[in-house]
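Structure representation.

___
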Amino acid sequence: MQEPFLQDDSMAQSPHSPLTPENDRCNDLQFGFAQPGQHKTNSLSHNPQSHNPQTEIRRDRLLETTATVAHLLLTAANLDSSIQQSLQLLGETLESDRVNVVENFAPDSNFLFPHWRVLYEWDSPGTPCQFSDSTAAQGSYEEIPEIFERLQQGQTVAYLIEDSPEPFRSSQLAVGVKATYLVPIQVEGQWWGVIGLDDCQKVRHRSSAELSVLGVLANCVGSAIQRQRTQQALLQAELVRVTELARSNEALQQTIDTLGSLDNFDDFIPAVLTIVARTFNAADCAYYEHKWDQTVYLRYWYSSGKILNPMELQLLDPEHHQVLHQLATGFTVPLEHLHGTTVRDRTHAVIIDHTCAKSVPDFHAFAISQGWGLELNQPLLVDGKADGALVIYRGINQPFSDAEIMLAEGLAKQLALAMQASRLSAQARNRAVETAIAREREKAAQQQAAELSRANTLLRNSLSRLSTEPNLNDVLGQLLLEVTRYAGASVAHVFSYDATQDALTLKLRVRDEQVFWTPADDEPVIFRSPISVTTTPVFTHLCQHPQLATLNISEFSGRLWTGVSEWFQAKRLRGTSSCVLLVGDRPFGFLAMAFSHPVALRLVDEELILALAQQIALVMQLTTLAEAAKETALLEERNRFARDIHDTIAQALTGIILQLEATKGIVATQPEVAHEHLARARALARDGLAEARRSVWALRPEALESQDLPTVLHYFAQRMTTGTRLKATVEVTGTPFPLSPMIEMNLLRIGQEALTNVLRHAQATAVYLTLHFGSEAVQLDVVDDGQGFDPEQITVDQGFGLIGMQERSQRLGGRFSLISHPGSGTTISVTVPPSGGQAT
């Protein structure tokens, strides 16, 4: 099957080409499909003679557009506007008449093929709008099954509209489409939609490199749209939570008003049960007492609008109401019924599933016969002990939400307060209840307001930083610092997840209010290498059940990584909380926090920590996408350099070999002919050397094109140490004078490599770079106050960077010096003559 658009632009201009105005339809253009990064080309694409400088210019423009689009998607306050700008930039760069973003969607639950619809569109002047035609703005992949299959496999599709099936062909021809490219958008590992390039005026060629970069941009656009939808979902969830709080406040206010209007506690309980049944939409609820020992008594029973008081419960016929009569006369509760706690010692609510519980068979059977599946059992605490319980019964299809559990706790506090008040004298009871309830209500209101304000501030700050900070690593560090502060943790680590190795690798950590990118010396050895997920069962569990997992010191045994338990003990850490960093269903990493105190996070704290963890996961996803774009550009540059070597230096060497071979056997007999061959070989060698120097010059750092070495050295030192604890100082001594490009480039590379070694290995707090201009030589010194090392113990594999610095010094005709001792820091000195690097 031929690739329709993967041809040189020169073919489109040939008078014999099927793409000329005389024959606008390309006879050999069939449906063509191309793997991203593996686009097939015809023979013209590989012909060195077809190398087109215009293609190089367009490639450079596309790389610039890539950077601009990525910046727009990360920083723009209005996503719709930034996407429209991005589509216009892509369309103008790739000379397309129309660029659109198409989303897949499911029309209903009984579909074989997904449908598609246009979300965003940019049209060049004079190009009809696809949105204006409803049949062209959306449709079903059932009309184009072959295209659907290719896109679903992650392949870019290119084809002529006249070769597509009906009715899809007519709908696209109606909006002027002659040919199109469809680049799949992948979001969280799933095919989300496509970016389409429509040629309406003239069929144009796009190279494989352009399509590869466009594939990365497509994923960036899809992720930006999905990220905005996720943020909107978070805001919607917050609105739901506010609604639940309002509902809770209303129920609490009703109980307060009821208590104020009644004279005794026995009248208050039936009123509260009525409010509970209405608020929780429950058919049945009850109030139990166990004030003195482990014996429990049913005191009030609400069922279908009717309330039975203690006397009415005692008078029930045991034959017809056996279970209720037994509950009213007293019973004991097995420990396993309340998840391992006694009725008097428990402090938190328990939810019981009667459809699978086995602790009290008779009562479970009774509950199921009444249509209950779930029971919320909330203790009433008086002076630290559970004197009673508020119990709510609902069907198995009505699970209790976190907000409802919090509301039940608030209502239980109201009952407990009323219970305490009933024990006071009749004269003082009303005054004490009013004061206690008002204080509790004011305290709860202030606490809720403070929590909401703090949560909104944290989320707003993190979203603002994500949209304005260009350095994603800085954003990642600040987010981890914020979640550590909010949780009250002493230490926090973020591990990145590598799906290919199924392993976790330490990415960054927070300790003492500072962000670090390498493990500390006193941390477990396991942190210094990839950790297999097979040794981390909690990671797999949390991927399937996203939540915050908490362990305290009594639960550590056998549940921590090797060496971590000993580290906790040495650092006096007593608790840990962790969660998987997910974007959708795809794990990007693992967040682990350690605490100097036992961990007891509230539900609202866990929700906010998970929300901040979601932001960390989004930043890690954006980092992954940015690295993919960078690797694509780097691969293209490597390919270009390889072509240059093949077309110049390799050909020169081949010619030299041929000329030298020709002299064999004729040096003595035909010296003049042999001399001519040697002269030609010498000329070819000079040409090859010139080409080699040109290629090396092309690799010179761009910063040195417009600035001198001291300025560039200072820039890179500050840039490399920003966000770390390392302080870099750059000093220039002597009288600076111009250096040759070769000296500047090599001294800059040596300084960068030395600074990288300090960041990775030295554990230093300060590094000093001194560039001295002398009359006889230029000297660069790099001195750090780190841990130092024994140079004799460094192997070849470990010392590759040091060898590279030494070789650069020798290439310049200079001297390389390394002085280091364990515990005494390291000094690297490079001294080169001002004329270094001129001869070769």
The CA atoms of residues 761 and 827 lie 14 Å apart.
